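quick q for whoever's on today - can somebody do inverse folding on this one?? i tried earlier but teh output was garbage lol. tokens:
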């Protein structure tokens, strides 16, 4: 069956095009440096927002009714899968991502749930044989069902911990079977509302134990994909244990997991943590922990996770700047963990939204590459910290200096002259590149 009959394969037509169903900046075969755009950007479609979202929000019922929604249960799952692969082919993306319950319905028991998943994964493998699309990552949804109301790996109920382990075990088997390049952990309920009823120490220790079990099982079955943690500070819990990259990094260090995990960084989660998207990418990069990206944006006027498609060129440029400085995303990619707005309820809007996001990151890639090629920001930063390259600064960096030598130096050199940080000039320069690059 054809689900998007009014849409042909999306192609690159250039910035002068007025065709809404064409790329203006994303040209997958165009080389930027030593890689094509497709190789740099590694775009992925989020199965959940694109094929299961229905426009429901806390104040309103569904507004989006897809042709496959007339079906139920496994019939719905099969139709949705067929529609998904048509969408992947027409959008010409190299990757997709999913939660287990997005792609296959839960049964009345865990055995039935696994049986359903096995059947859908078998069909997915068949579709993948004739498609270029690959699995960027999969994960287990351990936040939607009422059993996870106290958390999953951090639940106060040991039965829930065991159930969660069984879910992730199955998820890793699916990842191995489909050739996933990553496996993601997002702890939607791994946190707490109040310390009045929470043993935080036990919960964090259990989360550390859980992650080690996952590492051990991946080795046992030969799954060599990258493990990723996706930070988020709040929502649905008041305090989540994976608040931001820095907090997550501290957790990984404490439990001896740094060699096994990197971060999947979401722009909107960075906003909720009080950071910029670039800050989180930068923090991960300088610590060698930047793994993958959930590409979206939030609304600064709203205090929740709006998961909008990314269209802010300032943000996408600075994101690509960090990604290029990271040497790329390795096994990771840019997953559009984004949903069309509630009033954008027609099927075509799914294509318009992805085109907008893909063009925004393509343009960001072009500008970021030019900035790095010209050394605009790098040269300025290099000069700004030049005092640490010689004299007392070099002694500080090398570890040769101590409080005695620094005091002696300061007593003789107490007339200090600083240089301007040129913040406004640098922002104006970035604007110039965005307009002209």
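ok took a stab at it. sequence:
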């Amino acid at each position: 069956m054809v689900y998007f009959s009014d849409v042909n394969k999306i192609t690159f037509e250039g910035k002068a095009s007025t065709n809404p169903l064409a790329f203006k900046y994303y040209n997958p075969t165009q080389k930027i440096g030593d890689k094509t755009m497709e190789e740099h950007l590694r775009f992925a479609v989020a199965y959940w927002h694109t094929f299961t979202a229905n426009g429901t929000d806390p104040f309103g019922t569904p507004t989006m009714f897809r042709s496959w929604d007339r079906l139920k249960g496994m019939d719905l799952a099969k139709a949705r899968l067929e529609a998904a692969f048509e969408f992947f082919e027409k959008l010409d993306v190299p990757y997709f991502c999913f939660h287990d319950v997005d792609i296959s319905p839960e049964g009345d028991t865990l055995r039935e749930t696994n049986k359903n998943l096995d059947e859908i994964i078998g069909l997915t493998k068949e579709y993948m044989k004739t498609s270029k699309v690959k699995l960027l990552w999969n994960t287990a949804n351990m936040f939607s069902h009422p059993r996870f109301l106290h958390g999953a790996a951090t639940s106060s109920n040991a039965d829930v911990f065991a159930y969660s382990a069984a879910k992730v075990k199955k998820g890793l088997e699916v990842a191995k079977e489909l050739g996933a390049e990553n496996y993601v952990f997002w702890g939607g309920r791994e946190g707490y509302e109040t310390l009045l009823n929470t043993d935080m120490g036990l919960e964090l220790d259990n989360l550390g134990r859980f992650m080690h079990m996952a590492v051990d099982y991946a080795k046992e079955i030969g799954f060599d994909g990258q493990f990723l943690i996706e930070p988020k500070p709040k929502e649905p819990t008041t305090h989540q244990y994976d608040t931001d990259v820095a907090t997550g990094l501290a957790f990984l260090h404490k439990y001896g997991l740094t060699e096994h995990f990197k971060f999947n960084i979401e722009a909107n989660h960075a906003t909720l943590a009080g950071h910029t998207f670039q800050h989180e990418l930068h923090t991960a990069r300088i610590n060698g922990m930047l793994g993958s990206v959930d590409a979206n944006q939030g609304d600064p006027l709203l205090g929740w996770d709006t998961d909008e498609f990314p269209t802010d060129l300032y943000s996408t440029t600075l994101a690509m700047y960090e990604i290029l400085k990271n040497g790329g995303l390795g096994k990771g990619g840019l997953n559009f963990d984004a949903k069309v707005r509630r009033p954008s309820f027609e099927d075509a809007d799914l294509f318009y939204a992805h085109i907008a996001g893909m063009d925004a990151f393509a343009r960001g890639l072009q500008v970021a590459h030019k900035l790095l090629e010209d050394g605009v920001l790098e040269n300025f930063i290099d000069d700004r910290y030049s005092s640490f390259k010689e004299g007392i600064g070099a002694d500080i960096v090398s570890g040769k200096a101590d409080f005695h030598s620094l005091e002696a130096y300061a007593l003789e050199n107490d007339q200090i002259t600083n240089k301007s940080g040129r913040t406004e000039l640098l922002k104006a320069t970035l604007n110039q590149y965005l307009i002209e690059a």
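fwiw Residues 284 and 290 are 5 Å apart (CA to CA). also The chain has a mean pLDDT of 97. so keep that in mind when u check it
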